[in-house]
Amino acid sequence: MNNNQNNSKQLLLDLICQLAYREGDFTLSSGQSSSYYVNCKLVTLHPYGAFWTGETLFKMLPETANFVAGLTLGADPIVTAVSVVSAIENHPVSGLIVRKKAKGHGTGVWIEGPLPPAGAEVVVLEDVVTTGQSALFAVEKLRQAGYTVQQIISLVDRQSGGAELYAKEGLKFERVFSIAQIQAHYAALQVQKG
Length: 194
Fold this sequence. Notes:
Number of helices: 7
Distance between the termini: 33 Å
Strand content: 25-35%
Helix content: 40-55%
Strand order of the largest sheet: 5-4-3-6-7-8
CATH topology: Rossmann fold
Number of domains: 1
CATH architecture: 3-Layer(aba) Sandwich
Largest sheet: 6 strands, mixed
Oligomer: single chain
């Protein structure tokens, strides 16, 4: 890991703690109750947050990766950020967005973007993994379309069963941050504020 990536990752962690992480009573998309919430869209749609997300995740991709994808809406800015950074790095990676339901008009597609050739390897990106179902849905739709998916990378892992689900499905899973890392950094920032 180079110094630039270390710096981007640290800046990203700071921004997640400042903008995305909140404590309180929340209901998650999985239906579970939680004492905290992480809304990564506040970071991935932030100009610097998007860039740092793109830099960090791009460096985590296998060198052979030419395509990334994710389930709309949380993955949309992440997929875009990685694709933009890949152009800057002169290693183009095209982005794909997987719909939650097939397009109701026109071509009726599940997947938007410049479609890869059949059999191409696609890395699935996610903003926050809880149970793991959202990214797994994207994996299933991509595989049904004839693509190979072996890896999921998430910005945040809530450590609530997602990693175990992916292991059971034979998928490699990496995260930028665990929720434990975010909570520890958030607590340290609160202490610094006094």
